[in-house]
Amino acid sequence: MDRHAELLPRNFSLRVDSSRASTPSNGVEFRDRIIVKKFGGTSVGSIERIEHVAALVARERAQGRLPVVVASAMSGETNRLVALGNQIDPSYRGPAYDMLVASGEQVSIALIVIALAKLGVPAKPLLAYQLGIETDSVYSKARIKSIRTKELEATLVAGVVPVIAGFQGVDEEYNITTLGRGGSDTSAVAVAAALQLGACEIYTDVPAVFSADPRLVPKAREIPRLSFEEMMEMASLGSKVLHVRSVEIGAKHGVRIHVRHTFQDREGTWIVPEGEIMENPVVSAVTHDAATVVFKLAPIPGETAFIAKLFSVLSEKGVSVDIISQSQLERGYRLAFSVTAEDEPLVKNVLAAFLPSEVKVETLNDVAKISTVGVGMRNHPGVAARFFSVLADKGIQVQLVTTSEIKISAIIDRDRLDDAARALHSEFSLDI
Amino acid sequence: MDRHAELLPRNFSLRVDSSRASTPSNGVEFRDRIIVKKFGGTSVGSIERIEHVAALVARERAQGRLPVVVASAMSGETNRLVALGNQIDPSYRGPAYDMLVASGEQVSIALIVIALAKLGVPAKPLLAYQLGIETDSVYSKARIKSIRTKELEATLVAGVVPVIAGFQGVDEEYNITTLGRGGSDTSAVAVAAALQLGACEIYTDVPAVFSADPRLVPKAREIPRLSFEEMMEMASLGSKVLHVRSVEIGAKHGVRIHVRHTFQDREGTWIVPEGEIMENPVVSAVTHDAATVVFKLAPIPGETAFIAKLFSVLSEKGVSVDIISQSQLERGYRLAFSVTAEDEPLVKNVLAAFLPSEVKVETLNDVAKISTVGVGMRNHPGVAARFFSVLADKGIQVQLVTTSEIKISAIIDRDRLDDAARALHSEFSLDI
Questions:
Q1: Do residues A148 and A196 both lie within one domain?
Q2: Do A377 and A419 share a domain, yes or no?
Q3: Which residues does residue B334 pair with via DSSP β-bridges, in sequence order?
Q4: Is the pLDDT of residue B239 over 90?
Q5: End residue of a domain, out of A253, A278, A303
Q6: Per-residue pLDDT tens for A41-61?
Q7: pLDDT, mean of residues B191-212
Q8: Residue A95: pLDDT above 80?
Q9: Of A47, A110, A174, which has the smallest distance from its Cβ to B100's Cβ?
Q10: Same-domain status, B248 and B371
Q11: What pLDDT is stored for residue B330 in this prediction?
Q12: Which of B217, B206, B207 is nearest to B432 (CA)?
């Protein structure tokens, strides 16, 4: 277990069951030829693109490799499905929601298999229940517990390309679960981990991970190598390139992740163990998340029990609370916390049911989170001071703050996000 | 086994496994309360309609019944999915095709469950793999072999409404299969048979089975009761109201089928054993099928072996040949046969690969099949004479003919279909 594992939640465990796999006698060479290739929604966003993906897979196979494909739903499809469900009841969460949204991947893997067949490549579409991608039962945010590799290895041994539906799993009762938006990355890295591979390819619509979102920061640069730890922070902090859980699994199982462009035949960003990176800048990237909402509650009782109960109820409903701050008022306390904008209706429901009527709730919608991330921050004190100086110089007010060994995050007004991102990117010498 | 069973194919068998079911001690009463309700594509064609269906199910449940819902894909959805696949390769058939088109039902049952939840009715979406709806592996035309009732009965016992994806099954290897267009009817009747029920409700967008298609024959009337045997013929002959296999299963297992309108609260047509109908007209209905194609091959060798081989190759590809005729030419023979228009590309592929180059193939696309059906035909000779006289009087040319004890079918020019249908409907005293 490498050092990144300590960042992983305690209950993380990915059981690998390949005991019954019938790998050929030259098992090592066989495994070395397997390559997991994950294609995101834009990569399979049209019939033309699906045929491009099939051609890419066919070429790889012609070169003697054994591709395993993991695919997302066609771009726009998951949103369409979510909207259908929301038309009936936007607050519903449960097995039907996951079954609904998981259908998009079923369509895209079927189409990829048809496109491969057209090229003469035998392929098989595989859903989570067929592959035994077992998760917990936290619908719409499920976590993978184990993957059987028997079917997968048998398919590969038969010379057939497995084309796996990303994003979905099944719980103990074989109900469909989903892993949260972006979860196909996690499916791919978990499949690579289960197959005991050292790497996994994530094909997407950007050529690499950037030092900031180029739409916000025109001087952003591509990052050739990033540590798992940094990427995990960036994914948690709003970078949309990778699903955070995929990076956790990559770190724990030593699966290096290669983020690259589907339609450009060149290297992108490698996410690797920190020890494999020679030199780190102080800050590796500036990350933002515009989909943030802050709730301010006052006055509330000061007892920890009250606050603990509130956060435990939120957690039961599947809300991940991000930054929390508490401050004393003349009478009682003020509690402020941020959540992802998607969870706003859920939080409002919980607060309405939980809070005594005298507690006033203020919701801040026009905010965003800006962060700097870098393992180099460990050895360079004073980063926080520079971070806040930059924002102060620009007259940007900070609502909430949180820091870790390798990141600083602040909630600011959303209309100052561009300014803040550019100034921080420049301050930490990341500009091209 | 009633007399209709002799019409069933020899290999038909629907194993009913309810041995391990934990039905409550008042098992008989429990079973009497179960009612299978199947909703077609137009019945779930919009969010509003899905909410109507949920209200209908909730009302039934409030009256103490135990509804089991079986649903089709939202109208238009299966066509959309088929079109996606066809954009890549219209000739592809295999597991990926079935997985593709089966996704539509996954969406509709999830939405129905969300709509039921909104009304406070606990419900569970169930896919074929969860329910053990086992079929053979004839992709896109699979036949149900058995249904486990354990999950279903457990769900009912728990007070939860099972909402089952129609149209789909799984084969022995747990790949998704589909039952052919309209196959959700078959899912519903098979579920009712597995639960050993005496009836099944099929909700659709027409109020009943008509004596002819009212769009062709304005004087068509509703039929209150039809025998299984007649409905089987009508479904085979182009009536779109019920999937033919659903009627076979109903006949074999004594599941009466009630065809009724989703949005009109009144009785429609009951499909029942012939013995339950007091008096039969000579002809019960005039049925047509505009989606027919005739192939004419000449000259071909006269040996039965050649023709047998051709039809066996077509059958292997999943083509059902309908009417066949052979006639002698000066040199060799002419073979003509009709198939459903959907199979035209498949037939063309088979013929191109199979036939010697000297055989000329003529394809007639502008044809249709017109039929009269009625168990009364058994006791009334001369129906065929009247049938052909009517067509002759109208100057309508007959390309191919076939008859059975209870039906006469002819292939005619498609532009004479309306004339033929109206004239036959009038001749056999079916006009309102």
A1: yes
A2: yes
A3: B327
A4: no
A5: A278
A6: 999 999 999 999 999 999 999
A7: 96
A8: yes
A9: A110
A10: no
A11: 82
A12: B217
Count the neighbouring beta carbons within 10 Å of the beta carbon of residue B350: 18
B229 belongs to a structural domain: no
**Same domain assignment for residues A330 and A194:** no
User: Would you state the pLDDT for residue A15?
Assistant: 54
Domain assignment present for residue A235? The answer is no
With an 8 Å Cβ cutoff, is B71 touching chain A? no
Domain annotation covers residue B214 = no
* pLDDT at residue A279 greater than cutoff 70: yes
Q: Are residues B256 and B349 in the same domain?
A: no
Other CB atoms within a 10 A radius of the CB of residue B363 amount to 12
Question: Cα distance from A87 to chain B (closest Cα, Å)?
Answer: 7
Give me the CATH number covering residue B394: 3.30.2130.10
Q: What is the CATH number of the domain that holds A180?
A: 3.40.1160.10
The verdict on a CB contact (< 8 Å) between B110 and A118 is: no
User: For residue B299, what are the contacts with CB-CB under 8 A and spacing of at least 6?
Assistant: B329, B331, B332, B333, B334, B358, B359, B360
Evaluate whether residue B69 is within a structural domain: yes
Predicted TM-score of the model (pTM) = 0.86
Residue A14: its pLDDT value, please? 53
**Is there a single domain that holds both residue A325 and residue A179?**
no
Query: Rounded to whole angstroms, what are the CA distances from B220 to B28, B115, B138?
Result: 41, 36, 37
Which tens digit of pLDDT belongs to each residue from B358-383? 899 999 999 999 999 999 998 888 89
Q: Distance from B130 to chain A by nearest Cα, in Å?
A: 7
Which of B226, B251, B278 is the last residue in one of the domains?
B278
Q: Exposed, middle or buried: residue A200 (CB in 10 Å: 0-12, 13-18, 19+)?
A: buried
Which residues in chain A are contacts of B88 at CB distance < 8 A? 47, 50-51, 111, 114-115, 118
* B354 vs B350: CA distance, rounded Å: 6
Q: Which of B89, B100, B119, B127 to mutate to test the interface with A (most CBs of A within 10 A)?
A: B100
Count: domains in chain B: 2
Residue A13 has pLDDT above 70, yes or no: no
**Predicted complex ipTM:** 0.85
pLDDT at B172 over 80: yes
- Pair B232, B247: CB distance under 8 Å: yes
Domain that holds residue B144: 3-206+241-278
DSSP state of A182: T
Same domain, A296 and A267: no
**What pLDDT, in 10s, does the model give residues B66-81?**
999 999 999 999 999 9
CB atoms B97 and A118 under 8 Å: no
| Coil vs helix vs strand at A325 | strand
Q: What average pLDDT does the segment B5-33 reach?
A: 52
Do B273 and B351 have their domain in common?
no
Give the per-residue pLDDT at A301.
81
